Amino acid sequence: MKRLLLLVLAIPPLALCVVGGCGPSASSIPVEVADGPAWFADVTREVELDFVHEVGTVSLEKYFLPHLMGSGAALFDYDNDGRLDIYLIQNGGPKSGAVNRLYHQEANGHFTDVTSGSGLGITGYGMGVAIGDVNNDGLPDVVVTEYGGIRLFLNNGNGTFTEITKEAGLDNPQWATSANFVDYDRDGWLDLVVVNYVDYDPTVICTGKGDQERAYCHPKSFPGSVTKLYHNLGLPRGSNRQAVRFADVTLTSGLGKLPGPGLGVVCADFDGDGWPDIFVANDAHANHLWINQHNGTFKEEGVQRGLAYNSMGSPQGNMGIALGDVDGNGLFDLFVTHLTEETNTLWKQNPRGLFQDLTGPARLLRAQWRGTGFGTTFGDFDQDGHLDLALVNGRVSRAKTIQDGSLPAFWQPYGERNQLFANETNGFFRDISSANPDFCGAPRVARGLACGDTNGDGALDLLVTNVAGAAQLFRNVAPHRGHWLLVRALEPDLGGRYAYGATVRVNAGGRQWVGWVNPGQSYLCSNDPRVHFGLGKLEQADSFEVIWPNGDKESFPGGPADHEVTLNHGRGKK
Amino acid sequence: MNELPIQASRTAAISKKSLRLFGGLLLACLVMGGGVGYYYWRLTRPPVVPAFSLKCNDPAVERVIENAHQEVAKEPNSDKAWGRLGMVLFAHGFFSEAQTCLAQASDLAPHEPRWAYLRALLVLQEDRTAGLDLLEHTAILANSPAFVHARLAEELFENGRFDEAAEHYHQALHSSPNDPRALLGLGRLALQRGDLQESLGYLKKSTVSAPTARVPHALLAEVHFRMGKLAAADQEKRTAAELPEEQYWPDPYYDQATDLQFTVDARIDRASRLLHQGKADETVRALSELIQEYPDAAAPRAALGRVFIYLKDWPAAERALTEATERNKDHLKYQCDLGYVLMRQQRFSEAAECYRKAVSLKPGHALAHYFLAQCLMHSKDQGGAIEELRKAANCKPDFADAFRELGRLLAESGAKAEATAALEQAVQLAPEDQTARRLLQSVH
Fold first, then answer.
1. Which segments within A460-539 are labelled E, that is strand?
2. Nearest Cα residue in chain B from A249
3. Residue A155 pLDDT exceeds 60
4. Which end of chain B has less Cβ packing within 10 Å, N or C?
5. Which residues contact A72 (CB under 8 A, 6 or more apart)?
């Protein structure tokens, strides 16, 4: 009887459920909620990095598009003291007081603002930065891209830089965004590729779709600009180290035939012929893949090689670029960030030189939230031997609902949360964003993401730039990290500079890892030029192999893990 | 032994038990009855018309939304009224409110795929998983058209559910044989599997069904390239490059919604489409109405000016564009368009003023420098023209015409070396330009 009573009493709630329709909702497939410890901690204050990005004097209500698109940062060791320094770009305009800032890393890991007197404290509508040794004196030089031009600064080796833009023949009156140094003709001198965005008309007024309020214009409102290529003419022996000269070879190289609008660029050997090619991410248009023809010219093959469009054949936002071998097949893959309404795209390379959009199968669509991605990077953050993925987000159109009220009022509708994906194995990812509140918790209008080992512990840290916000440094605190190696691949006969374009292979425990010497990735940023490898449980590398930029192949003996290793061109076994 | 009290207490105990049981049953019946009544009430009550508080700068748009809202208030049980309100909100970017209305329309007409489909498109933007669920639900409705299956198939493909995607592409073909979008999708699936020959077959059929669609040609380029047929790949790529980059697949449900856009820009776009359909008079009429509704706005006047440019009615174009620049003198395009109209009327010095204004607004505007050069040439200011052409070429390194004209003027002025360099660049940029080739030959 009691049981009957209980049963009877139980019926109504069930009945209510049935009549009320409280069955499972339409969102029946739950997205995994990440658990586990955080991988990154915000140490910005701790290291005394006090940079705040400014968007300057042109009133925000004019929706001046350059405000929305910058700015970037560089992680580089300007004084060769073995510690990464930081250069951060401002976007206040030439008449603002907001200058780009150079921070020197001290022995205690803190950063000191050394801008004053450095020569790098310039004003402008700063976009991005590229780092490279243009005169092969062993000192990294700096190119700054701006809305309205580019500027080249030569490193004097004493904490100061000298601007030599005009003397060097660099003239780019367009809206420059990302830039890369690349030795495209393999003559030992670093050439420069500069991506240009749109031929912007600031008098065009655009409105938001719903509220018809003034808004930032879509890039399709303007024609795209061409990517420019500058050939480094080199310095004869004994000449003045400042007599650097570039020739604009945009037209003769073929890059001048197809305009963008370009936002991201990465240089690497896409077709496996040993010569560097140029991939340009074009905003809302087909990406371009310029294949080096070995004779100073390039042929565009983005469509044929599967990189122009996503799997649906549509052009997408195409902002930041990450390059790395996520599935361990020895070939690099490409990840490009897009708008919130779109999906970021992972193109896997297989076979060599051919790419397929495999974003869905890689489980990158199972994200806890979406965003408009800009800076992005692959890195083995937990050092388990598989490349993970980080990206930073920030909208370009106003959201209907505001995620967080902590941003300045104007920017609140643009704030979004960053994302972090763990590579579980061989290119299958899991979203661990919610387990990383420091890096992913607060909505920001993020743009640049630079990656590097800033504190010498062998783990990759992340530097993020935010529109009208503080730059942030996130230290890698992933527990139980695997073993690691940091490889410096150098050219002793070229001033000892980094061998941009070199391929580095590590053989360990019957497995091989591949990395590439190329700090110019992500969006508007320059990264740590050392190549990082996570080795998991392996404590020893058996050997190293390097394909140098000029095609030489050398091998080097292995060694214990958890070290920085220097490989010099010409000192290995051919 | 005292049996009576025992029996009495037993009876009392049984009565209490019965009472409790009866009470429990009564309670259960009341609750069940309440539940059934609630369910019936929910089924039959009219839907609550939400009060939207939408911020919109355009009174015409507010009116359109309000009219649709009132239709719903008049007929709260009409799925068409709810659906129209949903579509109007969708068209004007009020996505969350549109979802509410489309959900209501769907509830009222669960077998109507249109509302479920539009709702799915909205939900997809925020939550791919939920959006995919809704698309799947839409596709199983009896009268779901081919494009719904194709759209679902694309989502499934992107999620790596290739077998299911194939199934829906085939369903699309079943209801619409030779559907180019479905053929393209099957071609894409075959490519993904590595079956290049099969992919080729589907893609070629797709191009036959939709000759102006870019994507099949782009994919054909990829397939040919993978097969090592480089020349064929290049040819397909060239074909794709000549087709509009925006890939538009007919989507009647989506088009129905976007046709309800009532913003100034949308109305100008619709008017422009009329022009391209050969309906010039209707275009002028539509834009004239817009000008009357928005007397202070420059954009409709500028649009009308462009229509008259297209019709080569220079005086009328000049009138409209002058009015546009009076309302917005700092608009680059208006100044350039007015300058062009003045040039066509041989009024070069006035045109030059417009282009000077344009380059003051934007110093890097290559086209403005180019046309300013043309005006200066007519005014016999060759030096000035050369300077402007140099600026044009510098601002836009792929500007073949600028290089050609610069080369021409430099040759005329005797600067042979510089002329040669400019003309060589013109020829490199535009190999088909015979004028540039002839000029280059004559300089040599």
1. 461-466, 472-476, 483-491, 497-498, 503-508, 511-516, 531-536
2. B397
3. yes
4. N
5. A89, A127, A128, A129, A178, A375, A447, A448, A450, A465, A522, A523, A524, A525, A526
* CB neighbourhood size of B420 (10 A): 17
Q: How far apart are the first and last CA of chain A?
A: 90
Which residues from A are below 8 Å from B56, CB to CB?
210-212
Q: Work out the minimum CA distance from A219 to partner chain B, whole angstroms.
A: 14
Rounded (10°) angle between helices B113-126 and B128-139: 160
Closest CA of chain A from B30, distance in Å: 9
- Looking at residue A573, what DSSP letter applies? B
Report how far residue B298's alpha carbon sits from residue B300's, in angstroms, rounded to the nearest whole number. 6
pLDDT, tens only, B298-316: 999 999 999 999 999 999 9
Q: Is B107 on the interface with A (CB under 8 A)?
A: no
Sheet containing A288-292: give its strands across. Answer: A262-268, A277-282, A288-292, A298-300
pLDDT tens digits, one per residue of A118-146: 999 999 999 999 999 999 999 999 999 99
- What ranges make up the beta strands (E) of A257-393? 262-268, 277-282, 288-292, 298-300, 321-324, 333-336, 345-349, 355-357, 373-379, 388-393
- Tokens 């300077």 correspond to what residue? B387
Instruction: Verify whether the Cβ–Cβ distance A313 to B214 is below 8 Å.
Output: yes
Cβ under 8 Å to A: B residues 274-313: none
HSE (CB half, 13 Å, CA atoms) of A63?
Answer: 18
Alpha helix locations (H) across B328-361?
332-344, 348-361
Residue spans of chain B under pLDDT 70: 1-14, 39-47, 49-57
